[in-house]
Amino acid sequence: MITVVALVLLIASLLGVSVRTRPAHASDLYAASREVSPWWNASAISGEYISAAAFLGMAGLVLAYGADMLWLPIGAAAGHVVLLTLVTAPLRRSGAYTLSDFAAWRLGSRTVRHAVSACVVVIGWFYLLPQFQGAGVTLSVISGLPVWTGWVAVVLAVGAMVLPGGLRSITGMQAVQFWLKLIAVVVPGLIFLAVWRLQNDADAARAPYFHRPTTVTAGTSAQMRLTAPAVVTVRGVLDGRRYDGEPVRLDTGTHRVRSGARLRFPAGAAVPHTDRLTPLRGDRWATPFSGGRNHPLAATYSVLLSVLLGTMGLPHLVVRFYSNAGGRAARRTAKIVVLMLAAFYLFPALFGTLGRLYTPELLMTGETDATLLMLPHRILPGLAGDLLTILVATGAFAAFASTSCGVVVAVSGSISGNFGGGASGFRLSAVITMAVPLLLATLTCVPQSMALITLAFAVAASSLCPLLVLGVWWSRLTPAGAVAGVVAGGGPATAAGLARILGGQRAGWLGMLIEQPALLTVPLGFAAMIGVSLLTRATVPAHTDRAMVRMHVPEDHP
C-alpha cells in the first residue's frame, strides 16, 4: 500500500514540476518569475491551503465536537473573501517578494522587517508542526510503522521539492496535488454516503457506541468515564489492578487505565469519555455552542476571528499573489480560490458525521485525525476498502507535502532576505525552517492537527493582519506603531501557542484563551499599532504618499 501511495504521489509531482527547475534569479525562488496564470495559481494556493488540518483534522473535530466545528470551513472560505477585498491587489502592486519585503518597503525600517520576519517564522513553525504530525498518523495507520517515520518522510520529500528551485519548482506540483486531494475526498465521500444510505444506519447525532466488538489500546495513562455499565475484556492495568484477558464488569463512573492496557468493548457499549478528549453526547453533538470545551461560545467566536483574519497573514498564501502578473490577475486568483475551497469543504463534515457511526473508538483514544483513514475499511471491508484507503492516504500525503513546501519557501525567503538572500542562503534557511517543528513534534501534548493549525492562524491574525490592513489602507502608520502592534498582538498569541503545545489543556477562561487567544490578542494588536502610530505621528515615512498611490492605482495591463 505504501508503494502505491508513493508511486501516485511521484507521478503527480512530476506532472506538476515546472520545465525550468533551476532558478536564474530571486524572482524564480520567491515569486516564480511573476508569470503564473490565475487558474493555475488558484489551484496552487488551494493545494497549499488544504493542509493536514483540513484534510484529516477537520473530520476529526466534527467527530468529537459536532456542529461548532462547522464554523472552521466557513471561516476558511470567508477569510479568502476578506483577503480579496482588503489586500490582494494592493499587496501585489507593491512589487515585494515577501511580507518582510513589503513591511520594509512600506515603512522604510529594518526593525519592522525583523519583527515581521520573526512573526513569519513563528507562524511557519506552528503551521508545519501539524503537517508532520498528520503524516505520522497517516503512515502509522496504513503501515503500522512508528509515528516518527512519517515526520522524516515529509521532511525528506519537502527538501527534495523545495531546494532545487524555490517557488517556481513547486507551483505546478501544488496545483496538480490540489486536484488529487479533491478527488481523494469527493470519490470516497460519495461512495460512503451511498453505502450508508443503503445500510439505513442510525442517526449520527445519537450518543456514539461500538457497532461491533472493538479493542482499544491506551496509548497513554488516562481516566475514562463510563456513562453506562459494560462488561469489558481487559489485558493490562485497570484501576490499579492487572488483568490477563478476563472479562470485567465496569460500573458507571470514572476508571483509571494505564498506558498499554488493551480493552475489548462489546457491540452496543457506549464509548467512554476520557480526560484526553471529551466528546459531546446525544443530540448535543448536533447543537451549536452546547459544551464540550471551555466557554464554547467565546471559543467559537475566537477561532472564527482567527481564521477569518489570520488567512491574510499566512505568509505562504500571501506570497503566492506576488507570482501573478499584476493586481487584476491577483484578484481573479483570489476569487477562484474561494470557489475551490468551498467545493472541498463540503466533505470533512460528512466524514466526521460518519465517523460517529463507524469509528467511535477514536473518541476514547483521542486519535480523531485517523477518522478519514479508517472509514474505508469500516464501511467497505475488503478490496474496495483497500483501494479507497490508498486514495485517501495519497490525498493525505499530498496535503502534507504541498502545504509544507509552500510554508518552507515563504519562511525561508523571509529568513534569507534578512541576511543577504541568494540561493545558498535560501537553502540553508529551508533546512532550519524544517528542523525546529520536527523537534516540536516530539514534545507536543496536542493530538489534533486542526487544534495546532489554529495557533498559526491566531498569531497571523494578531500580528501580520493589523500590519497589512493598516499598511495598505492607513497612511499614518509609523514604524514604531507597526513594531508595537506586531509585538503586542503576536507576542501573547505565540506564548499561548507554546503553552498549548507544551502544557496540554487548562480549565476556565485561562484555558480558553490559551487554546484560542485571538479574541484578546487581535484587538491588542490593532490597538497598539494605531495608538503608538498616533503618538509617533512625526515619524511617518516621507515616501508614504507615493507608496499609497502605487498600491491603489490600477495597472494598465491585466
From TrEMBL:
<keyword id="KW-1133">Transmembrane helix</keyword>
<feature type="transmembrane region" description="Helical">
    <location>
        <begin position="522"/>
        <end position="540"/>
    </location>
</feature>
<comment type="similarity">
    <text>Belongs to the sodium:solute symporter (SSF) (TC 2.A.21) family.</text>
</comment>
<keyword id="KW-0769">Symport</keyword>
<dbReference type="Pfam" id="PF00474">
    <property type="entry name" value="SSF"/>
</dbReference>
<feature type="transmembrane region" description="Helical">
    <location>
        <begin position="425"/>
        <end position="444"/>
    </location>
</feature>
<feature type="transmembrane region" description="Helical">
    <location>
        <begin position="179"/>
        <end position="198"/>
    </location>
</feature>
<feature type="transmembrane region" description="Helical">
    <location>
        <begin position="334"/>
        <end position="354"/>
    </location>
</feature>
<feature type="transmembrane region" description="Helical">
    <location>
        <begin position="111"/>
        <end position="128"/>
    </location>
</feature>
<feature type="transmembrane region" description="Helical">
    <location>
        <begin position="450"/>
        <end position="474"/>
    </location>
</feature>
<keyword id="KW-0812">Transmembrane</keyword>
<keyword id="KW-0813">Transport</keyword>
<feature type="transmembrane region" description="Helical">
    <location>
        <begin position="481"/>
        <end position="502"/>
    </location>
</feature>
<dbReference type="InterPro" id="IPR050277">
    <property type="entry name" value="Sodium:Solute_Symporter"/>
</dbReference>
<feature type="transmembrane region" description="Helical">
    <location>
        <begin position="298"/>
        <end position="322"/>
    </location>
</feature>
<dbReference type="InterPro" id="IPR001734">
    <property type="entry name" value="Na/solute_symporter"/>
</dbReference>
<protein>
    <submittedName>
        <fullName>Cation acetate symporter</fullName>
    </submittedName>
</protein>
<feature type="transmembrane region" description="Helical">
    <location>
        <begin position="148"/>
        <end position="167"/>
    </location>
</feature>
<keyword id="KW-1003">Cell membrane</keyword>
<feature type="transmembrane region" description="Helical">
    <location>
        <begin position="70"/>
        <end position="91"/>
    </location>
</feature>
<keyword id="KW-0472">Membrane</keyword>
<dbReference type="InterPro" id="IPR038377">
    <property type="entry name" value="Na/Glc_symporter_sf"/>
</dbReference>
<feature type="transmembrane region" description="Helical">
    <location>
        <begin position="387"/>
        <end position="413"/>
    </location>
</feature>
